[in-house]
Amino acid sequence: MIARLLITACLWLAATPAIADTVIAARTIRAQTILAPSDLTMVAGDVPGAIDSIDEAVGLEARVMLYTGRPISASDIGPAAIVDRNQIVVLRYSHGGLSISADGRALNRAGIGDVLRVMNLSSRTTVSGVVAPDGSIHVGGLAAQ
């Protein structure tokens, strides 16, 4: 009888949905601010698309304005930008033994690994590439790898 009650209790606990926590902004945070633990707090409840761990957000940059008490989604935050809009950057193309470099102007802000549109200053052509850790933009051969 006791074993049957324990099994029933275990099955009931397993069948109830787990309540997840959601990360919200503890205060209004401006875009381009690096998030610290004091900027964030947890609330009970699961919000689809919202992050569920403060550790996921600490050290990342707010991409948009984050308002007090609102859930923070993964698209609201990202790696800190190392390239600013209108910054002159080096465009690099490498494939096999061929390597080409040119200067370009960043058309947006971006962090490491982000895809960024850049205007080639020589040809005035707009190209897209991936931001490298050194701030250069890899287009073509390396961007596709």
Automatic annotation (TrEMBL):
<comment type="function">
    <text>Involved in the assembly process of the P-ring formation. It may associate with FlgF on the rod constituting a structure essential for the P-ring assembly or may act as a modulator protein for the P-ring assembly.</text>
</comment>
<protein>
    <recommendedName>
        <fullName>Flagella basal body P-ring formation protein FlgA</fullName>
    </recommendedName>
</protein>
<comment type="similarity">
    <text>Belongs to the FlgA family.</text>
</comment>
<dbReference type="InterPro" id="IPR017585">
    <property type="entry name" value="SAF_FlgA"/>
</dbReference>
<dbReference type="GO" id="GO:0044780">
    <property type="term" value="P:bacterial-type flagellum assembly"/>
</dbReference>
<feature type="domain" description="SAF">
    <location>
        <begin position="20"/>
        <end position="78"/>
    </location>
</feature>
<keyword id="KW-0966">Cell projection</keyword>
<dbReference type="InterPro" id="IPR013974">
    <property type="entry name" value="SAF"/>
</dbReference>
<dbReference type="Pfam" id="PF13144">
    <property type="entry name" value="ChapFlgA"/>
</dbReference>
<dbReference type="GO" id="GO:0042597">
    <property type="term" value="C:periplasmic space"/>
</dbReference>
<keyword id="KW-0574">Periplasm</keyword>
<keyword id="KW-0282">Flagellum</keyword>
<keyword id="KW-0969">Cilium</keyword>
<feature type="signal peptide">
    <location>
        <begin position="1"/>
        <end position="20"/>
    </location>
</feature>
<keyword id="KW-1005">Bacterial flagellum biogenesis</keyword>
<keyword id="KW-0732">Signal</keyword>
<dbReference type="InterPro" id="IPR039246">
    <property type="entry name" value="Flagellar_FlgA"/>
</dbReference>
